[in-house]
Structures are given as C-alpha cells and as structure tokens.
C-alpha cells in the first residue's frame, strides 16, 4: 500500500520562508496539501496550532473559538488569557483580545488553518483578514484552501510577505511517481511509470489511487495504459477499482462511514452495525490508504477529502436507500455522546425533521450557554420553510433573538409560538413549556418588565420534572437561568431575601453543572445585595465574579459590567476614589452601546458617584439624567431609578438649582414616596429651603426603620441629615447622637461616601472624641473631608491570610486609636484577656507582628478607613 513520499523541496520551501511571511497553499482536492503540512509540522521546533474548518462552516463564533482553543492548547504552560465561549458573542472584541494575547506569547505557535475554503462566514473571514494584517512578527500563519479567498493577500504579495504554493508545485515529479510505485512493491515498467505520470499530470490523488488499483492487477502495465480522462473521472474509476479489491468488511465500512466528517471506532461500529471497526481503521491508518488523523491527533480519524467525496458518491450510487438510515444512526450516536450539533445535522440529512426539531429544542439553552447561538441560527436555516413554522422552532428563533438583543422580534416570535403551542406533541409539551418559561423570564427581565418576570417565575416549581429525552441537562440549564433571572428581578424590586435565595441557588447550580457564565452573573448580583449591609463582603463577591470572568477571557464582556460597576461604587464608598475610577474605566470598556437598560443605568450611577466624590456635581447631574433617560426604555421602574433620583436631587441642590431639584422630587413614583431614598432627597431640599423641622419630618420613617432603604448608605445619610437639622434647631446633644448612630452604621464597612455627600465636616469636627466609640473612623473622616475634592485613600492590597471574625473586626476598629488593650476592653465590655487574644489573632491573620503594622495592613486591605493625613 502507498506510503508518504517525502516532498523535500516543498518542505525546504516552507522551512526557509521568512518568519514574518504568511504561507498560503492553494490547490484542488487530492493535491496533498494536508499531507505536506503534517509532514512539515513534524520537523518544527515551535508548537503548532492546527485548525481544520468544518464543511460549510457558517458560525463565526465556533470557528474563532476553535482557533483560540487550538492556540491555547499549543501554548500550554505559557501565560495566555484567551476568551472562552459565551452566549452573546462579540466577535470584534474577542478577535482584538486574541490578537493582543498573541503578542505576549514567549513561544508563539505556527497557526495552520486547513480547508479554509469551507469557511462560509463573512464575519469570520473579515476578522481573519484583520489577524493577517495585525499578526505579531513572531507568529507564522499558514492557510490551506482549494481556491483563493478575498483576504487582502495581494497586499502581502506586493510587500513580499506572502509565500505561495499552488497546484503546479504540489504535482508529483516523475521521480516521485517512481518512488511511490516502488514503495508499494508493485513492478511496472519505466514506460508505464511515465504514462501514469503523464496521464495523471502528477496529480497526487490520481497517482495514489492508480497505485492502489495496480496492486491487484495481473498486468499492471496494461491497466495503466488503458485508463484516462479528467481528474474526476479518473478518480471515480480508480476508486471503483480499489473498492472492488477490498474485502466485504472493509468496503462496507468505507462506504457506510463516509457520511461523517470524522470518525472513531465506536461511531464506525454504529454505522456498520457490527463491532471490530477499530482493527480495520488502524490498518487503513497505517497504510495511509484512505484515512488520516484528525487535528486532535487522538482516536478520531477522517478521510482524505477527495476520497471522502468519492466514497459518498459511490454510496449514493450503490446504496441510495441506505443513506437516510445511516444519517439516522449517526444522529443517534452523536446524541448519545453529547454532540448535539452533529446529531441535529445528521437528523436533517436524514430528513428526520421531527427528530431534528426535538434535538434542537431540547438543547437550545445548553447550546446558547455554550456560546453556539450562531450555530443554532444556522441549524434553524437548514430546516425547510414549512418545518420552521413548528412552534418549537419558533421558540428556538425567539431564544436566538433574545441573545442578539432583538427584543421586539423575540416578543413577536414568542406570541406566535404561544398561539401554536397546542401543536407540540404531548410527550414534548413539558420541555416546551419549560423553555418557553425561561424565554419569557429572560425577555421580561431584559425589557425591565419586572412584574412579567415574577408572573413567569411563579410557574417554575411546577416544572421541576421534565419527562423527555435530555431532561436532566435541559432542566438544570433551565432552572439555572430561571433562578438567575428571578434573582435579578427580585433585587431590582428590593425583595432582597428572595433575591439572595434564588441567586445563591443559581450560583450553586451553575457551579455544579459547570456554567461559569451564569456563575459570574450570580456572583455579580449577589455582590449588589451584600453591599446593602457590608462593603467588604460586596467587594469580596464582586472580585470573585471578575476573577471568574477574567479566567474565561470575559474581562470586557457585558456579563462583568455589574460586578465592575459595583467595585467602582464600593471603592468610592470607602473613599478609594482612584481605585474606583480604575474599576469604572473597566466598566465602560465592558458596556456595549446596546447594553441592557438596567446595566447602563447602574454604570451611569457609578460614574455619578465618583464625580460626586470629586465634587463635580455638574457632570454628576448630567450622568444621572442620562441614567433616567435610559430608564424610559424599561417597561416599569426599578429600585435603581429611585437611587438615581435621590442623588440627582442632591447634586442639583449642591449646584444651587433648587427649583430644578424640586421638579425632580415631584417625579418620584407614588410607590417610592415611602422609601428612605425619597425621604433623604426631600430632607436635602428642606434643608436647602432652611426648613430644619421639615427635614426631620421627611426623615422620620427612615430614622425609625419604617421606610424601606436600599442599604445602610441611605440610613447613614439620613442620620447625618438629621444631625444637621438638629444642630440648626439648637439641639447639639441630638445632633451628636445622630452622628454616633451614623458612625455605628458606617464602622463595619468603613463607609465614607454618605458623610462626604452630606458635606457636614463642621459637625463631624465638633463631635467629641471622648463621646464616641469610633474615634479612629472619625479622625479619618475629618482628614478625608478636609483634603478637598479628589482626595483618595490608599489602594487596597491582597486579602488577609484568613478572614477576620466580627469580634476581631470590632477590636480592629480601635487599633488606630491611642487606647490601650484594657481601655478597648472597657469600650467593648470585654475582658482584657479576650481583647488581647483578638489582637493576637488579628496580627496572625494580617501577617504582622505589631499594632502599627496591623493598622497599616488593615487600611491597605480596606478593613479600616485609610488616612490622608499630611506628614
């Protein structure tokens, strides 16, 4: 049987190509492009990233993720951070990140893209052209294709940066033809060898097929003399000759397995209907007769392209009635092995439209979460128009449009699907209802229809068991998404207990079923909830979310917008304004132009908070009004709008635009007028109008706890405003009590923003040091407020070696003061030995050995307010 003939001249040409050149191999099928490249890669010292493009590849995301995964595997051991799959794929951002990461590789791989002619996505081709234009000088790109593509290669040709190998270069020489014949052990005359070379014109596939045929002929010279024709007809003739000389077992395996792009022994057994395929495949691989290793170089094989095409043609000619059955078998095998896309495609090839519909509908969520939305769309398009009218496929289309952000189109498809739902087969109705529910949840949440989310979510417990094939995966993915969407909606309506419960459950499920995209989302929104009580806990959760996102290459993805904005606001809340601005810059980089309204509002709020910290109330008011303009895109208002209105009123009052502030207060919704945020906004207005008594009346509900508040930040503001009002009314004692309560609330999180926004430096300076349990925090607040606009505390360092307990944190607050351990014990009503034990634990956990170092370390970690004291 024929073996690989070394193409010495071509290998030398590849190896001596300039390092900054792009190599392109353009030749018809059967020219030996892939064989040449595989032979070359065996000689390379550099790692190789090999990508074979699937037939008629229309999914830009899948193509690019395969390129990225191949590069990641080739760069094993190097510090490389490449993006993973996600539902809402930003090809431009992904490609840009990929290009940037290539620059950082110490040992960049040779990137080989084989069968590039199969890439049918214009978007993917455009980014490939960009990669070629922007490629790092150290990386070599090799493209193999049957025909030229529009990739701007002419510019490289003019610049002398293109190495081209074409069909004429790949044709066998007479000597190579002689070597191939000799390697088979078949004896033919020199004249027959010359005739074979002449009639095949050196076409490698034709020569190989002829040699396979000659091996079984009694008169090889005569056989060679009698065949002629075009490349295709020669190949068909020779393949028929080869097949006839195979055993029945081998011939049937070759024909039946030709319907798949790649195969392994298990799949071959399923298609042939009998075991033992591994022996035949291994022999074919050793003989290099029909198959070659797939790019993963594992157990998977594929046919040489031309031979695969010819085998499929022979199958249709000899056993046309068998083709649908083989595609059905392939579909079942792929489904059983979790390869859903291939399963759907083969069901479609078998014209099993019901089976293809079931597969695509049941796995819609998993495909979307795996980042294959474009693939889902392409699979949909492969159904005949009549089949696409099925309600399950209409629901699939709605899911695709939701991911793409076409919410009105999605709503239209859902309405049609709802009208046609009775046509769904009874055995699939439960699965259909579950996916319809999740689609409605997601659509309603993205449109800001929070009531719609609750309405859809109310049905979730009734659908915990789904009696259908693939139910476990469907149910897990559906429940994870539903818990995520419900939790967000409950958060925005301040139903915090249920929000936390659903997001905690969603986080646990996302981790258990390995859905990191949902993990990031749940962590990000759990951070928002935590921030209502604890800034350190908020920062911890948001940092976890960002870390998971960064680990998967989603550092500039919309999913990370919320935790990034949360870190910006939390940093501002603790007086770390420089750090907050850095987080905000990342937030803006991750926020797309068509961002979800609530995410856009929250990012605007983060911008405004930092501007207020810088005393730039004019710009803050602009951002806050932008946020309220975005709110008009929502079906209903959310709690974030309440907070935005509160800050806008305060910013306008600081600017002296009291009448404008009064008009914005009038725009609070009726449901928000009993909130703490409304009370704080109104109290600011009353103080601006010199109505201190009216300010206290406005704050009454917040001070006695009857008014709902977004978090402790609002309550701290209320206490400080009450202190200002009491001071104006001449009640200094009450003012001091309100300030002390504000410090009580602020101490656990080292809040500083609420004190800054109320602008009460004079009152804080007059707070008696001997009358407070928060002397250290009070001193730091005075320093921060005294330093004027833009003063920022020290950046946060790494986490402590071990988390401090609540008792240890209470002791820690006193360490910056001059109080001794017995005096701290007296303040906290603890024994001196207990305080000393806590101090020893604090030193151990912070990695320090003395009190001053512990204080400095705690400030770096954000466990204590930093200091801006001038030295």
What does this structure look like?
This protein has 871 residues and is mainly alpha-helical. Among the domains are: 8-170, P-loop containing nucleotide triphosphate hydrolases (Rossmann fold, 3-Layer(aba) Sandwich); 174-335, no CATH class; 596-665, Serine Threonine Protein Phosphatase 5, Tetratricopeptide repeat, CATH 1.25.40; 674-793; 794-871, Arc Repressor Mutant, subunit A (Orthogonal Bundle). The model is unreliable at 462-471, 793-797 and 867-871 (pLDDT under 50).
Specify the CATH architecture of the domain at 8-170.
Answer: 3-Layer(aba) Sandwich
User: What is the 3D form?
Assistant: elongated
Tally of individual helices: 47
Which structural class do the helices and strands define? mainly alpha
CATH fold-type name of the domain at 8-170: Rossmann fold
Tell how many strands the DSSP assignment holds. Answer: 7
Q: Order the strands across the largest sheet as they lie in space.
A: 2-3-4-1-5
Spans with pLDDT under 50 lasting ≥5 residues? Answer: 462-471, 793-797, 867-871
Helix content: 55-70%
């Amino acid at each position: 049987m024929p073996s690989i003939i070394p193409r010495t001249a071509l290998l030398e040409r590849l190896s001596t190509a300039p390092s900054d050149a792009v190599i392109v191999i353009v030749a018809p099928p059967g020219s030996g492009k892939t064989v040449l490249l595989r032979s070359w890669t065996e000689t390379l010292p550099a790692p190789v990233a090999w990508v074979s493009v699937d037939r008629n590849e229309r999914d830009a995301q899948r193509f690019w993720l395969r390129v990225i995964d191949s590069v990641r595997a080739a760069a094993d051991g190097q510090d490389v951070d490449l993006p993973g799959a996600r539902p809402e794929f930003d090809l431009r951002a992904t490609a840009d990140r990929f290009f940037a990461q290539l620059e950082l590789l110490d040992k960049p791989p040779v990137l080989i893209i084989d069968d590039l002619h199969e890439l049918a996505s214009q978007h993917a081709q455009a980014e490939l052209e960009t990669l070629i234009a922007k490629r790092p000088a150290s990386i070599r790109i090799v493209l193999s294709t049957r025909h030229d593509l529009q990739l701007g290669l002419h510019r490289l040709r003019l610049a002398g940066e293109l190495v081209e190998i074409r069909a004429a270069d790949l044709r066998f020489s007479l000597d190579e033809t002689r070597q191939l014949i000799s390697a088979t052990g078949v004896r033919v005359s020199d004249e027959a060898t010359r005739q074979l070379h002449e009639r095949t014109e050196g076409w490698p596939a034709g020569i190989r097929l002829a040699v396979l045929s000659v091996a079984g002929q009694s008169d090889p010279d005569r056989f060679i003399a009698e065949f002629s024709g075009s490349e295709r007809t020669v190949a068909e003739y020779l393949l028929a000759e080869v097949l006839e000389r195979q055993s029945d077992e081998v011939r049937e395996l070759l024909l039946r397995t030709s319907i798949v792009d790649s195969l392994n022994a298990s799949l071959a057994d399923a298609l042939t209907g009998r075991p033992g395929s591994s022996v035949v495949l291994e022999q074919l691989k050793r003989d290099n007769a029909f198959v070659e290793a797939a790019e993963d170089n594992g157990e998977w094989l594929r046919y040489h392209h031309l031979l695969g095409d010819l085998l499929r043609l022979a199958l249709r000619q000899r056993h046309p009635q068998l083709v649908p059955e083989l595609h059905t078998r392939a579909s079942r095998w792929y489904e059983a092995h979790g390869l859903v896309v291939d399963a759907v495609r083969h069901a479609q090839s078998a014209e099993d439209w019901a089976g293809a519909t079931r597969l695509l509908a049941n796995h819609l969520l998993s495909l979307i979460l795996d980042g294959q939305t474009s693939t889902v769309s392409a699979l949909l398009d492969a159904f005949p128009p009549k089949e696409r009218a099925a309600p399950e496929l209409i629901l699939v289309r709605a899911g695709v449009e939701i991911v793409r952000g076409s919410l009105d189109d999605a709503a239209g498809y859902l309405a049609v699907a709802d009208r046609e739902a009775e046509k769904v087969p009874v055995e699939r109705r439960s699965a259909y209802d579950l996916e319809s529910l999740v689609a409605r949840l997601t659509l309603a949440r993205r449109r800001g229809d929070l009531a719609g989310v609750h309405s859809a979510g109310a049905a979730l417990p009734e659908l915990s068991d789904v009696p259908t094939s693939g139910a476990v995966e469907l149910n897990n993915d559906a429940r994870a998404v539903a818990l995520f969407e419900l939790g967000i909606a409950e958060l925005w309506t301040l139903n915090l207990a249920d929000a936390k419960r659903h997001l905690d459950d969603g986080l646990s499920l996302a981790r258990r079923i390995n859905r990191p995209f949902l993990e990031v989302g749940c962590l990000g929104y759990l951070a928002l909830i935590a921030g209502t009580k604890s800034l350190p806990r908020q920062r911890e959760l948001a940092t976890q979310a960002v870390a998971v996102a960064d680990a998967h290459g989603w550092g500039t993805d919309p999913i990370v917008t919320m935790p990034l904005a949360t870190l910006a606001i939390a940093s501002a809340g603790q007086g770390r304004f420089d750090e907050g601005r850095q987080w905000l810059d990342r937030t803006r980089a991750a926020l797309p132009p068509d961002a979800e309204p609530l995410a856009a509002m929250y990012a605007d709020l983060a911008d405004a908070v930092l501007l207020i910290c810088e005393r730039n109330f004019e710009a803050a008011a602009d951002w806050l009004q932008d946020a309220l303009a975005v709110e008009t895109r929502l079906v209903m208002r959310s709690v974030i709008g309440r907070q935005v209105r509160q800050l806008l009123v305060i910013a306008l009052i600081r600017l002296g635009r009291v009448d404008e502030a009064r008009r914005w207060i009038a725009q609070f919704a009726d449901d928000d007028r009993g909130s703490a945020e409304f009370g704080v906004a109104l109290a600011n207005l009353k103080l601006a109008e010199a109505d201190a008594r009216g300010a206290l009346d406005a704050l009454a509900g917040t001070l006695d706890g009857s008014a709902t508040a977004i978090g402790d930040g609002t309550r701290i503001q209320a206490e400080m405003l009450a202190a200002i009002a009491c001071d104006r009314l001449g009640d200094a004692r009450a003012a001091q009590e309100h300030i002390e309560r504000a410090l009580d609330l602020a101490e656990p999180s080292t809040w500083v923003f609420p004190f800054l926004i109320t602008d009460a430096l004079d009152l804080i300076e007059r707070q008696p040091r001997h009358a407070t349990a928060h002397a250290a925090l009070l001193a730091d607040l005075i320093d921060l407020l005294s330093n004027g606009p833009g003063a920022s505390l020290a950046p946060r360092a790494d986490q402590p070696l071990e988390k401090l307990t609540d008792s240890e944190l209470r002791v820690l607050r006193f360490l910056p003061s001059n109080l001794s351990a017995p005096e701290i014990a007296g303040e906290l009503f603890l024994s001196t030995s207990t305080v000393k034990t806590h101090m020893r634990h604090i030193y151990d956990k912070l990695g320090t050995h003395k009190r001053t170092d512990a204080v400095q370390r705690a400030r770096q970690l954000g466990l204590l307010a930093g200091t801006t004291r001038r030295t």
